[in-house]
Amino acid sequence: MKNIYSKQGVVDTYVDGQVIKAIWKQLSNKEALYESCTAQLEFVKQGYIQVIIIDVSMAEGTPPMEIQKWFANVLFPGYKDCPQFKGLINVLPTKSVTKMGARRWKEVAESDVFGFTVYETEEMVVAEEIAKDMIK
Q: What is the C-alpha to C-alpha distance for residues 126 and 111, in angstroms, rounded to an integer?
């Protein structure tokens, strides 16, 4: 796995073949959200990435509203513009506040205007299996 963006105590973002794995510990850090997601989008635009796994299972907080708007207006449309990109897999949060925030960005992504699939699971190992099936 190749590290493409990390911020200690906040996020580790890796490329693993045709999959990006973003493992979040803190979702309220605006700078890290923007930088990690921008790095992810750049790899998707290069045609290497088909699936992104977003692990927020142990994360705290929720993305600020301005970042959630950026997801809807910039990030998700950027993914849609890449024909090889198949979708996102969310590893669900355990903390209730994080669950509420995750629901918002999931609803935006699932609105089907972006042309990719969004899956949810409770475990990283299941997310990795879903990713393998999506890439076949």
A: 23
What pLDDT is stored for residue 110 in this prediction?
55
Query: Could you read off the pLDDT of 103-126 as tens digits, one per residue?
Result: 555 555 554 566 788 888 999 999
Cβ neighbours of residue 66 closer than 8 Å, sequence gap 6 or more: 30
- The DSSP call for residue 25 is S
Tokens describing residue 8: 């200690």
**Alpha-carbon torsion (111, 69, 64, 19), positive or negative:** positive
Phi, psi of 51 (to 5 degrees): -140, 145
